[in-house]
Structures are given as structure tokens and as C-alpha cells.
């Protein structure tokens, strides 16, 4: 669809089609979506598109208001209910929908609002964490680094904060802090979550990374995959995953789970590809990301890590 046709469609054809369907069905576009589209990503994406294309002044003001709330990370447990109620009531009033007759619409639409602006807020939260630089003078940062070693190498004691042992789990040098520069604390938080919440899969991946022929730098690859996960989140490709799997306001924990899936699946893809050496990493990563993007185009995609791992 070229830009000229898209402009013509949104400016002229779409309003006419909406008016005709409203007259024949007695339902506005948002009602038709919430009643006729399967829940999860298909419904949420359709509602999001409808709201963003709306030319009604009150709806546009509502969208701007919710964008501001999400960008400032004010969509919290304390005021979430109030925000959702206000958004639903605005649409009910603007679209002249009887809340008693169409109470199910209010529930379905409110859930869509929660997902749409919860996702936008998650983007802001992840970006905030990414901008926090690892600081060895901050005790919490140091503790998380030591925890990463503990979960990945439970049977080997770390001899010192600066040690060649860090290279065993895939850092480049003797001090891991230099490897977090690109992704900041987000890179460390991702690695730690994978290692602690998915211990067996993480150990499985670590074992593969130490393969004499097809090995790779576990931590460095993990930080690169943090970058991939962040890009997929930021450009909206990951909406399919979050809209399908989240049952409430999306949290940073859910982003860590998404990252863990990517790491586990990348390891399988790497082994199946059988690259000649680590210099093939960029090409393999590019193909892997292309596959993930293709999968996420399917609105029914739902990623989960297989808890049963095979010995390869």
C-alpha cells in the first residue's frame, strides 16, 4: 500500500466505511473490534490502530493524555484503576455507548488500554535501566555481578573481583564492568534473570558456549541479545509477544522473560547453524533476528522457554 493510497484511505474511505458500519450494525468501530476480534494481540493491535487513526478531538486528547502518563511512568498499581476507568468512561461518552447494555465492552476495552499503554510505559522503563551505567562503587551493582557468577558457576568459587575466571562465562577481560557499556545495567539484569530464573536452560546454554568447535562468549553474546530484545521492544515488533502473554500491566520481569527466550533460542540456532568460528556471529545473529521478526508477524505467536533441555 503506497503512501498516496494510504492517505486517501484514511482521509476519505475509512470514515465512510466506519459510518456505514455504524449505521448497519449499531456498533462503533471499537465495539466491533472488542466483540468480534479474538483477545490478545489481534484485538489489542486493532484497538490501538483505531485509536491512533481517530479524528475525534476527545479521543485524540485521550491518546495524548495516556501517552504522557506512560512516558512519565505514572501507570502504577496505585492509580491504574483510576486511569483505566477514566479512559473507558471517555470512550463510552464520546461514542454514546450505554455502559449497562454494553458492560462487556468496558471490560474488554479497559484491558486493551492497559496493554497498549503498559507496553509504552515498559519501553520507558527499559530505556531508563539501559541508561544506568554499571558502577563498581555501587554495592547493589557489585552484588548482582557476584550473583551472576554464583548462579552460572555454583561449584567454583570466584578468586577475586578482577579475575581471568570471568572469561569462563564469556566476558572479554578480567573485569566484566567494561563489557556492560552498551546496554548498561539492563545487560546485567537480563543475564542475571536468565541465570537465576531459568537455571537449567541457562546452564545448558553456558555448556554450549564452551564447546571446543562451536563455542562463543556467553556473556558477550548475552549482552548483544539484550540489544536485540531492546530494539524489538522499541520498534514495536515485540508487541505480539507482550499483548499475548501479559494478563495485566506489562512489567520489566516480562521483558527479562522475553530476553531469556531469545537467548535460549539463539543458542539452539547457533548450534544448528554450525558456524566456522565466532567471526560468523553477526551473520548468524542477523538471520536469527529475521526469523524472530517473521514469527512475531503472526498475531498468535506466544514464546515460551522449553524447560526440558536436551544434551547436545
Tally of structural domains: 2
Please identify the oligomeric state.
Answer: single chain
How much strand content do the residues show? Answer: under 5%
Q: Termini, distance in Å?
A: 46 Å
Taking Cα atoms only, what radius of gyration do you get, to the nearest Å? 23 Å
Structural class: mainly alpha
- How many helical elements? 13
Fold and architecture overview:
This protein is mostly helical. It folds into two domains: 128 residues, no CATH class; 158 residues, no CATH class. Helix content is 65%, strand content 0%. It contains 13 helices and no strands. Helix 8 crosses helix 10 and helix 9 packs parallel to helix 12. The longest helix has 28 residues. It is elongated, with a radius of gyration of 23 Å. The relative contact order is 0.09. InterPro entries: ELMO_dom, ELMO_domain-containing. It comes from Hypothenemus hampei (Coffee berry borer). This is ELMO domain-containing protein. Pfam families: ELMO_CED12. Keywords: Membrane, Transmembrane, Transmembrane helix.
Amino acid at each position: 500500500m503506497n503512501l498516496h493510497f494510504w492517505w486517501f484511505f484514511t482521509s476519505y474511505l475509512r470514515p465512510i466505511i466506519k459510518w456505514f458500519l455504524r449505521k448497519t450494525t449499531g456498533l462503533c468501530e471499537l465495539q466491533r473490534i472488542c466483540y468480534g476480534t479474538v483477545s490478545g494481540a489481534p484485538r489489542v493491535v486493532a484497538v490501538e490502530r483505531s485509536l491512533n487513526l481517530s479524528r475525534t478531538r476527545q479521543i485524540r486528547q485521550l491518546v495524548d493524555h495516556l501517552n504522557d502518563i506512560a512516558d512519565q511512568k505514572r501507570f502504577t498499581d496505585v492509580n491504574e484503576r483510576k486511569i483505566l476507568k477514566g479512559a473507558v468512561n471517555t470512550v463510552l461518552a464520546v461514542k454514546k455507548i450505554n455502559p449497562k447494555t454494553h458492560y462487556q465492552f468496558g471490560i474488554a476495552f479497559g484491558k486493551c488500554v492497559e496493554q497498549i499503554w503498559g507496553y509504552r510505559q515498559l519501553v520507558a522503563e527499559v530505556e531508563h535501566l539501559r541508561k544506568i551505567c554499571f558502577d563498581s562503587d555501587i554495592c547493589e551493582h557489585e552484588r548482582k555481578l557476584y550473583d551472576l557468577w554464583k548462579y552460572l558457576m555454583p561449584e567454583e568459587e570466584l578468586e577475586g573481583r578482577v579475575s581471568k575466571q570471568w572469561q569462563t562465562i564469556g566476558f572479554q577481560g578480567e573485569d566484566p564492568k567494561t563489557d556492560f557499556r552498551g546496554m548498561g545495567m539492563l545487560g546485567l539484569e537480563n543475564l542475571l534473570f536468565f541465570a537465576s530464573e531459568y537455571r537449567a536452560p541457562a546452564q545448558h546454554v553456558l555448556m554450549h558456549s564452551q564447546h571446543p568447535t562451536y563455542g562463543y562468549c556467553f556473556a558477550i553474546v548475552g549482552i548483544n541479545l539484550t540489544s536485540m530484545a531492546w530494539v524489538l521492544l522499541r520498534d514495536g515488533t515485540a508487541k505480539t509477544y507482550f499483548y499475548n502473554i501479559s494478563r495485566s500491566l506489562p512489567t520489566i520481569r516480562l521483558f527479562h522473560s522475553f530476553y531469556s527466550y531469545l537467548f535460549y533460542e539463539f543458542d539452539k540456532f547457533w548450534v544448528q547453524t554450525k558456524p566456522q568460528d565466532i567471526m560468523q556471529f553477526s551473520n548468524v545473529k542477523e538471520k536469527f533476528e529475521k526469523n524472530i521478526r517473521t514469527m512475531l508477524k503472526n498475531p498468535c505467536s506466544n514464546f515460551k522457554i522449553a524447560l526440558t533441555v536436551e544434551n547436545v
